[in-house]
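2024-03-11 09:14:02 INFO worker-7 job=invfold-0412 stage=load source=structure_tokens
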């Protein structure tokens, strides 16, 4: 008997006696005649594809290691919606690296997805609680597209105009994605300073989008602005930071109708920009037009509680061309990781992380001010922008020499976004780049107007699993309620009828893959550039297209 040890034999289809038995049951002795009969000659592609020779698993991993080894792993405090985070090892090993979680199928069938649905309900609960709104979905693709989806939701809920105002202090990539999505929809995007916005003077205004805290770290009180926008019938959209919301007022408390953002900093590495689970929450009146899957609780035939997909009449697999959502518009594995990060740390743990980040940011701010620099804002959480008297490039270069990436905004301004990975040594190195020293821990107090007074994550699930043993058991209980490819074939077909091979998942945990910020200098991401270019080239060759885009992605 021929021994098959190559990748395709182990992972794609059947081999040996099983394959021969299937062929014979169809009346064929070999595969080629079956293919000839099944695929008409007129549509068969006969040309030999210009692709490199296939490699074994071991050789492929070695080559990928060599390619990705060109990336330079440094500490990145660039911000713009992406922050360093520690993935708890119990989550890394038992979710991200566990086929019981990463090979499960899109949960069309609730009976075989109870574990994931419970984890995703935790995600929704976390989002509604932190944002202070009524309903949250079980994730979207990224913050930029979530903002674009919020725009579509707002105009669906308020079709009186076709003008949307976007604060210039939103993350630049978010502004660009919203502009791109707006153009074919005939929506006019006004980008400007929200502090000078008079909603009554904007004809056709249907929504306003602001960032909280903004891309330069400033915390603004939007209450007065939101009252004015509501007076003209427009909706208020807030792009928010989840960690900040553990200590800052919830957007729903100061007038937000929709809140979006990225859950990345809840335990999911940079990954050169993704994948990460975005989120969206909204007021109850908008829920039937909200995109993304919604998890709810129901009772089975015996009266036992169970989890199910709610409001499915919004979904494309039911309403087809009239749908307002697609169940696959999600990042499930990453949403599960983010929710379990909150479960594992609990409310007090999350607030401790947030306060520590703010404390270190305040200490750094005091140091650079003491040595003659000025700040863009005095009200901040984890991000400061320093005015450097025209020395921005040299300061960023000095930090890079210490192995640290900062954000070069322009010739005068440097942005610094700290996170839970920031150490005392990092503070000293950053201060050194500015010609400053860390002399003492500064007082860190948020302005009273912005301090959160409402409790967070009061549900029992967020207060019960702070030990690794209890967390491990909880994750195992959920996993056992789900059906994944590590237990059985899942005969549901469609886009995810495949096995994510172990060799394909392993590199996700490599530092040279996971620890690269999306906005690092190009010289630090040469491995990603080569890998992505090669993949695009190979896919174009296979499909016959001139070019292939690798975005957007989905984690159904």
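2024-03-11 09:14:09 INFO worker-7 stage=emit residues=556
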């Amino acid at each position: 008997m021929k021994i098959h040890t190559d990748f395709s034999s182990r992972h794609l289809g059947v081999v040996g006696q099983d394959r021969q038995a299937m062929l014979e049951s169809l009346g064929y002795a070999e595969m080629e005649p079956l293919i000839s009969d099944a695929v008409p000659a007129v549509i068969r592609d006969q040309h030999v594809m210009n692709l490199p020779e296939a490699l074994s698993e071991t050789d492929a991993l070695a080559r990928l290691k060599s390619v990705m080894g060109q990336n330079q792993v440094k500490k990145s405090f660039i911000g713009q919606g992406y922050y360093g985070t520690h993935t708890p090892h119990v989550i890394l090993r038992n979710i991200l690296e566990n086929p019981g979680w990463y090979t499960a199928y899109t949960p069309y069938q609730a009976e075989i997805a109870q574990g994931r649905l419970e984890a995703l309900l935790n995600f929704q609960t976390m989002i509604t609680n932190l944002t202070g709104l009524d309903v949250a979905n079980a994730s979207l693709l990224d913050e930029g597209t979530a903002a674009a989806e919020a725009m579509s939701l707002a105009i669906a809920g308020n079709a009186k105009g076709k003008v949307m105002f976007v604060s210039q202090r939103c993350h630049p990539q978010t502004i660009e994605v919203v502009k791109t999505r707006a153009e074919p929809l005939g929506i006019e995007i006004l980008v400007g300073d929200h502090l000078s916005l008079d909603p009554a003077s904007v004809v056709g205004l249907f929504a306003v989008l602001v960032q909280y805290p903004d891309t330069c770290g400033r915390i603004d009180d939007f209450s007065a602005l939101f009252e004015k926008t509501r007076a003209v019938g427009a909706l208020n959209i807030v792009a928010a930071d989840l960690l900040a919301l553990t200590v800052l007022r919830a957007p729903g408390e100061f007038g937000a109708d929709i809140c979006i953002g990225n859950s990345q900093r809840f335990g999911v590495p940079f990954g050169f920009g993704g994948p990460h689970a975005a989120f969206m929450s909204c007021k109850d009146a908008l829920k039937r037009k909200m995109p993304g899957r919604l998890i709810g609780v129901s009772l089975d035939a015996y009266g036992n509680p169970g989890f199910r997909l709610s409001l499915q009449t919004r979904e494309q697999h039911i309403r087809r061309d009239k749908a307002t959502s697609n169940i696959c518009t999600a990042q499930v594995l990453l949403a599960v990781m983010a929710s379990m990060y909150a479960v594992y740390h609990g409310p007090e743990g999350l607030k401790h992380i947030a306060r520590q980040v703010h404390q270190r940011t305040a200490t750094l701010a005091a140091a650079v001010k003491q040595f003659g620099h000025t700040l863009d804002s005095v009200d901040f959480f984890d991000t400061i922008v320093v005015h450097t008297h025209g020395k921005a490039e040299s300061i960023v270069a000095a930090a890079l020499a210490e192995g640290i990436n900062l954000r070069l905004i322009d010739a005068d301004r440097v942005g610094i976004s700290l996170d839970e990975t920031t150490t005392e040594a990092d503070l000293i190195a950053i201060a050194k780049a500015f010609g400053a020293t860390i002399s003492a821990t500064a007082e860190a107090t948020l302005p009273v107007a912005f301090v959160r007074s409402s409790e967070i994550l009061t549900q029992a699930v967020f207060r019960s699993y702070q030990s690794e043993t209890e967390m491990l058991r909880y994750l195992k209980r959920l996993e056992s309620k789900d059906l994944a490819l590590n237990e059985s074939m899942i005969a549901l077909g469609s886009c995810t009828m495949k096995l994510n091979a172990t060799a394909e998942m392993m590199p996700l945990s490599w530092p040279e893959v996971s620890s690269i910020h999306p906005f690092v200098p190009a010289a630090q991401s040469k491995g990603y550039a080569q890998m992505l270019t090669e993949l695009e080239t190979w896919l174009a060759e296979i499909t016959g297209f001139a070019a292939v885009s690798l975005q957007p992605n989905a984690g159904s």
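2024-03-11 09:14:09 INFO worker-7 stage=report msg="The CA atoms of residues 70 and 515 lie 13 Å apart."
2024-03-11 09:14:10 INFO worker-7 job finished
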